[in-house]
Specification:
The chain has 4 helices and 9 strands; from the N terminus they run ββαβαβαβαββββ.
């Protein structure tokens, strides 16, 4: 199977799949998708469509070192929670491997601008680690973007 752009490895099984097939599989399993990204997430993309595409694929949170401002607001508008990684963490320092599963606990009533949100990383070998992220929202929009969200995996 081709393993280039448009394909990913399913975290539960290790099977390579198209992004759409994996998104449908996660949905059938009752699991949301978390993106782990580097600095300036969303820079240069067709930002409104990039946020819509992520939402259609079941993304509920993005853990990133930093966000491009407009894309961050587009994510919020699509119900995706933007979370900043701690300053001492980056995708490279997390040393993500196939089968690792990030989890974010964000109770809607507890989400406020720049608040801390606990995240964890469960490794395929069973090891787990936790760290705090911060909500990359400066002020809450009129409609609570996070209302239907309680847990992302």
């Amino acid at each position: 199977m081709h393993r280039g752009p448009g394909f990913m490895v399913h975290a539960g099984s290790g099977e390579p799949q198209s992004l759409w097939d994996a998104a449908q599989r996660y949905k059938a399993e009752g699991r949301s998708v978390v993106i782990v990204a580097g600095a300036r997430y969303g820079m240069g993309s067709s930002r409104d469509w990039a946020a819509k595409g992520a939402a259609l694929l079941g993304v509920r949170a993005v853990l990133a070192s930093s966000f491009e401002r407009t894309h961050r607001w587009n994510l919020i508008g699509m119900g995706i929670l933007p979370l900043r990684l701690p300053h001492d963490q980056a995708p490279e320092t997390l040393e993500l491997r196939l089968g690792d599963v990030p989890t974010v606990q964000a109770e809607p009533a507890m989400v406020s601008p720049r608040c801390d949100v606990p995240a964890s990383l469960r490794r395929a070998d069973g090891f787990s680690g936790t760290f705090d992220t911060s909500v990359a929202i400066e002020h809450m929009p009129r409609s609570n973007c996070c209302a239907p969200v309680t847990c992302f995996r």
